Amino acid sequence: MELNIKQEKILGDNQRITILNTVIDVLNMKETIVLVEKYIKTKTPLHLMGVNADKINEVNQNELMKEIVNSCGIINADGASVVLASKYLKKKLPERVAGIDLMQELVKLSAEKGYSVYLLGAKQDVVEQTKEVLLEKYNKLEIKGIHNGYFKEEDWKDISKELKKKKPDIVFVGITSPMKEYLIEFLQNDGNTCVFMGVGGSFDVISGNIPRAPKWMQKLNLEWLFRVIQEPKRLFKRYFVGNTVFIKNIVKEKHKK
């Protein structure tokens, strides 16, 4: 899978770097939003990807994930460790583009410009609460529909039919990896021309079911630590073991001849 001609035209002269076999766009938040809007206006399908250390580790262990990630029209650095690694490798990225912040900026853009969104993922009560919170904040926001994240692969076709019927401009997908990436690729290959963005657990945070790290931790790039403290059994291995593997591989890449 490679970028198609339409995607390459939208990206234009945007610079891309490669870290551990993973392509990443040299974009800040504002530049990302400008590019996403071009996809919306031209009805060009987009898999808006955010990569952190965990995702890059997966890319180097899973050939299908590598193909999916590197074929995305926009690939942001959604992890402080990735930005720090880029500086260490002298391939500087401007900033971390946090997925939950980007999602909320795109929701704001949609409310202002009349673009429509669809919420796909999380538990039924969580996705319903997320819808309520967003509509309360943005009363002009058009939410074309919601669907919880509890479905099987045999249901993907029905989800695709629903999206083709509703025709949202942006679909926020709040399910876990790698199923999230596989689902988005299926939906795009099935002819859906909207912007798809994987947002992980953002619905839980926006709905108020899970607190986000305080601002001071976000500024110090310690949001990952806050998440580990919240869910140590689930996230300890991902962040501590995963980051160790990532750092080790970055050092190897630095000294590769």
What does this structure look like?
With 257 residues, the chain is an alpha/beta fold. It contains 13 helices and eight strands. It has helices spanning 5-11, 29-42, 53-59, 63-70, 80-88, 99-113, 124-137, 156-166, 179-189, 202-206, 215-219, 223-230, 232-254, and strands at residues 16-19, 22-25, 46-51, 74-77, 116-121, 142-147, 170-174, 195-198. The strands form two sheets. The chain has a six-stranded parallel sheet with strand order 4-3-8-7-5-6. Helix 3 (53-59) crosses helix 13 and helix 12 runs antiparallel to helix 13 (232-254). The longest helix has 23 residues, at 232-254. It is globular.
Low-confidence stretches: none
Q: How many DSSP-defined strands? A: 8
Q: Which descriptor suits the 3D outline?
A: globular
Q: Round the Cα radius of gyration to an integer and report it.
A: 18 Å
| Structure class | alpha/beta
Largest sheet: 6 strands, parallel
- Helix share bin: 40-55%
End-to-end separation: 28 Å
String of helices and strands: HEEHEHHEHHEHEHEHEHHHH
User: Number of helix segments?
Assistant: 13
Strand order of the largest sheet: 4-3-8-7-5-6
Average pLDDT works out at 92
- Classify the beta-strand content into a percent band: 15-25%
